[in-house]
Design brief:
The strands form two sheets. This protein has a seven-stranded mixed β-sheet, sandwiched between helices. A six-stranded parallel β-sheet has the order 2-1-3-4-5-11, with helices on both faces. The chain has two domains: 139 residues, Response regulator (Rossmann fold, 3-Layer(aba) Sandwich); 142 residues, 3-Layer(aba) Sandwich (Rossmann fold). The protein is α/β, with parallel strands linked by helices and 323 residues long. It has twelve helices and 13 strands. The longest helix has 17 residues.
Length: 323
C-alpha cells in the first residue's frame, strides 16, 4: 500500500473513532420488554391466547419480550405480593387474567400499565371511569353483561325437536348462584320448558349430576358459566356424548373440547386480543386513554359432535363451526 493511502486510511479510522460514526459505534440492542402476568388460578390453555396474539403482532418471546408468570391458585391475597414482584422487576406492563386482581395491583402501583384480559362491567365495578376513557393506569377487555339464558334455551329448542325438559348444571359455591337460577327459570317459563336443577362442586358431583339427568329423562343440558366447570370441560363433554345429551356451554372453549354448542365468549380470544393493548402500550399509548374493548357473544358448533349425536345442524346456524 502506498504511504499516502495508508495515512489517509489511518486518519479516516481515527476520525470515525473520535466522532462516533456508525462505522465505529457498536449497535445498541433493541429493548427487551417485560410483561408480568397474574393468574387467579393455575395456568390454563386459554391464557396462552396472549402468547398467540403477541406472535401474530411480530413479537418473539425471549427476543422481544419476557413474560413473568405468577399463579394465585385461588388465593387472591397473593395479588399484592405479585404486584410488588413486578415493581421490583421493573415490568413494563402487567396483564391480569382476572379483573379480581385490579384493585390489589393498583394499590401497589399507579404507574405500571395494567391490562385486564377479561372483566365484567368494569365501570359498574369502579375499575375504570368509563369504557371510552378508562383513566388511570388500567385498560383492557370486558365481556358482555347480557343474560344469555333466553338465547341458550332458544338455541336448544332450535336443534332438539319437541324439546320439553332441560337439565341445568350449577355450582352452589358460585357468587351469582341465585341470580342465575332466577334468570334461567324466567327464560324457561317464557320458552315453555321444564328445568331439572342439579348442583356440582367437584368431579363426583358432576358424575352424580349426569346420573340425575339420565334418571329424570332430560333431553338437553345447559352448563352454567362457572370457573370450576371450565376446568372440567373434557369430563362434561364426555358425559354428554356418552348419554347422547345435546348440551350448550357458556364459552367456545367447551366446544373445542368436544361439547356440542356454545353461546357466549371465548376466553382464549379475549387474551389473544389483550396482546394488542400491550403492543400499543409498548409503542407509547397511555392505558387510561385506550378504550375498553367489548367482545360480542357468538354461536359455535362442533360438527363432529353433532354428527355423533345424529344431529344435522346447518353451518349457517352458527357464527363458527369447529370441524
Amino acid at each position: 500500500m502506498r504511504r499516502r493511502e495508508f495515512i489517509t486510511l489511518l486518519g479516516g479510522a481515527a476520525t470515525s473513532s473520535v466522532l462516533g460514526t456508525p462505522a465505529a459505534r457498536t449497535q445498541e440492542p433493541a429493548k427487551l420488554w417485560r410483561v408480568g402476568i397474574i393468574l387467579g388460578g393455575s395456568r390454563t390453555p386459554p391464557i396462552d391466547g396472549f402468547l398467540q396474539g403477541m406472535h401474530e403482532l411480530g413479537y418473539v418471546a425471549g427476543r422481544d419480550y419476557v413474560a413473568d408468570w405468577r399463579a394465585a391458585d385461588g388465593r387472591f391475597a397473593r395479588f399484592p405480593v405479585f404486584a410488588q414482584d413486578f415493581v421490583r422487576l421493573k415490568a413494563d406492563v402487567i396483564l391480569l387474567e382476572t379483573a379480581a386482581a385490579v384493585d390489589a395491583v393498583r394499590q401497589v402501583t399507579r404507574t405500571i400499565p395494567i391490562v385486564m384480559g377479561y372483566s365484567i362491567d368494569p365501570v359498574g365495578s369502579r375499575l375504570v371511569a368509563s369504557l371510552a376513557r378508562p383513566g388511570g393506569n388500567v385498560t383492557g377487555l370486558a365481556g358482555s353483561t347480557e343474560d344469555t339464558s333466553p338465547k341458550q334455551l332458544e338455541l336448544l329448542k332450535a336443534v332438539v325437536p319437541n324439546l320439553s325438559r332441560v337439565g341445568v348444571l350449577l355450582n352452589p359455591e358460585s357468587s351469582d348462584y341465585s341470580e342465575v337460577q332466577t334468570k334461567m327459570q324466567a327464560a324457561a317459563e317464557k320458552a315453555g320448558l321444564a328445568l331439572v336443577w342439579v348442583d356440582a362442586r367437584n368431579p363426583q358431583g358432576i358424575d352424580r349430576a349426569y346420573m340425575v339427568f339420565a334418571g329424570q329423562r332430560v333431553e338437553a343440558v345447559v352448563i352454567t358459566d362457572d370457573r370450576y366447570f371450565f376446568t372440567q370441560q373434557d369430563k362434561l363433554a364426555g358425559h354428554a356424548q356418552r348419554l347422547r345429551l345435546p348440551s350448550i356451554y357458556p364459552q367456545r372453549d367447551y366446544v373445542e373440547a368436544g361439547g356440542l354448542m356454545s353461546y357466549g365468549e371465548s376466553l382464549k380470544e379475549f387474551y389473544r386480543r389483550a396482546a394488542s393493548f400491550v403492543d400499543r402500550i409498548f409503542k407509547g399509548a397511555r392505558p387510561g386513554e385506550l378504550p375498553i374493548e367489548q367482545v360480542a357473544s357468538q354461536v359455535v358448533i362442533n360438527r363432529k359432535t353433532a354428527a355423533a349425536l345424529g344431529m344435522a345442524i346447518p353451518d349457517a346456524f352458527a357464527d363458527e363451526v369447529i370441524q
